[in-house]
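ugh ok fine here u go
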Amino acid sequence: MNKYKVPVNETLLKGNEKKYLVKCINDNFISSSGPFVTKFEKNFAKKVDRKYAIAVSNGTAAIQLAFESLNLKKKDEVILPSFTIISCVLPVIRCGATPILIDSDPITWNMDVNKIEEKITKKTKAIIAPHIYGLPIDMDPLLRIAKKYKLKVIEDSAEMIGQNYKKKSCGSFGDVSTFSFYANKHITTGEGGMVVTNDTKIAQTCRSLRNICFNQERRFLHYRLGWNYRFTNIQAAIGLAQLEKLNKFVAKKRKIGEIYEKALSNINTFKTPCKKTNYAKNIYWVYGLVLNKNSKFSVKTIMKKLKSHGVETRNFFWPLHQQPILKKMGFFKKCKLPVSEYLAKNGFYIPTGLSITKAQQKYVINKIKKILK
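structure:
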């Protein structure tokens, strides 16, 4: 039972989840070798217009395998935004490559693609492109740059399941793309993730790496080090049921965003999310609020007061160049990225889970307005 009157997120499990789970139990298929895994991978690949999908244990594992499949090496430079979850930079650091950070666009909160080219050197080998919060990165100019300099592209679509860029599915761009099925995503398997690609070799590599690189000729003979990132039949059963409802989930997310937008967009204390660009309409994975400069309120105060009224909130991502552990490791010395820093210090998001009711949204809106009076 959630202690909050309005949790920041609650899942919606009202489709075929229970039916498929019972089938798993009755058929005695609960491990990673069950038929739901194959079916979920096939249906998901079709949904995002990819040839191959490889289900894994979580979104962070998906990024790790995607990165590993591109055979990037020590000292290679990899471009990515600072304003993103730390999962995106982990495989870069662990392989000994060098992360090169880009500041954010202040309107979409995504990586500013206009700043990418100036950071490219002879050592640059790849771009990691995570879409943030509700709008995708402007992919056309990013892909043109990648083609010009022969760079690999990992598209992280964890927050964009069901979103489109110019009528093309997010997760269908670049060499390889990744997804997360954590409980707060548009479809969930509790924990879980997916790697998708059109490249046969990348797909084969990711399947092997996910399964500790067991040898097909002799199972316990290994020629490469991998991970146990397998995805269970139970998870896949839930995922398949969730995928069947994806279009309805996306429509509901957009409705949740529209209700907040109508009620909150005229408040001068903060900026609300960009509703649309010339390439996408916001999917509102989360509904973020960013305090205006010189606001008499602080994020900490607003969040604390909302909590006292039973409304759960979350801070925005903390930028990679200011992460204590990464600074301690010697990364990003003298790095200043003002937009990312501002978003991190002044941004937070309010409840947008698929189970939220209109009454709960009205309650959240009323409490925000009351606090800001």
